[in-house]
Design a protein that fits this description.
With 256 residues, the protein is of the alpha+beta class. It contains 5 helices and 6 strands, in the order H-H-H-H-H-E-E-E-E-E-E.
Length: 256
């Protein structure tokens, strides 16, 4: 009797387990087919892993697009600052960016090409932060694909030209010889903003903006303009005005 009961119990358990297993198998089959169809439609391959890897490879080889506002912004800047030469500042911005990445790699803020206290302080803070955390960052084979003016903002005594560059490099962030992020084999495509700032020295004069024409008394309202728009006389600005690169940051994560 006990044997019959045991056999009956086994049959009952089997009757319950088999449908559950069948549901699991069928569900897995359906999910796999859906993944294959999705992968095929997105990447042209049945393997989602292979498709994602292909996509990452393509992204590593495709330069990022930049916010190209140069044609719109450059004339505005030149109206305010007739001495502004875009090609000169574009070249300097690219050199500043490349040298800043080299400075982080070498852990030496003094390698940055621009003699800017603010920029060197930014780099020094990052280098010190890495050293305190035992982290090492490496930028190799840096290449700039395109550089454009992305924005131009005017304020009282301060104007900021935001210059954006599409950048390519090999990047690794390591600790104790282990790669925390980045890749030694796959390039990274990204964008950086470099801020070019025009300031007036508050110690040289009391007012932040503007002066008056010494000949006709008309106000000179535009920063950087050295000719009176009313009488045509040359106006020597009272304040000492300086262009300088003050900040570099990656567009997505707001860092050097």
């Amino acid at each position: 009797m006990t044997g019959c009961f045991g056999a009956l119990t086994a049959v009952s358990v089997g009757a319950l387990v088999f449908p559950a297993l069948l549901v699991i198998v069928v569900g897995a089959f359906v999910i796999r087919n859906r993944i294959r169809r999705l992968s095929r439609s997105l990447f042209g391959t049945d393997s989602l892993t292979e498709g994602l890897s292909r996509q990452a490879d393509e992204a590593a080889e495709t330069p990022r697009s930049v916010t190209g506002m140069t044609r719109l912004m450059e004339p505005q800047i030149v109206r305010d600052f007739p001495e502004f030469v875009w090609e000169e500042f574009r070249h300097r911005a690219e050199n500043a960016l490349i040298s800043a990445l080299a400075a982080v790699t070498a852990e030496d803020a003094g390698l940055v090409s621009e003699n800017s206290k603010e920029l060197r302080q930014q780099l020094d803070n990052r280098i010190r932060g890495n050293q305190a955390a035992g982290v090492f960052e490496r930028f190799d084979s840096v290449r700039i694909h395109q550089t454009e003016i992305a924005d131009y903002r005017k304020g009282k005594g301060r104007c900021v030209v935001t210059i954006q560059s599409a950048v390519e490099y090999y990047y690794c962030r390591m600790k104790d010889g282990q790669v925390l992020s980045g890749s030694r084999e796959r390039r990274r495509q990204t964008r950086y903003n470099t801020e070019l700032v025009y300031i007036q020295d508050a110690e040289a004069a009391g007012s932040a903006v503007g002066t008056a024409c010494p000949y006709c008394g008309a106000p000179v309202r535009t920063l950087g303009r050295f000719v009176c728009e009313y009488c045509g006389a040359e106006v020597v600005p009272v304040n000492r005005k300086v262009w300088s690169f003050q900040r570099i940051y990656e567009v997505d994560c707001r860092r050097v």
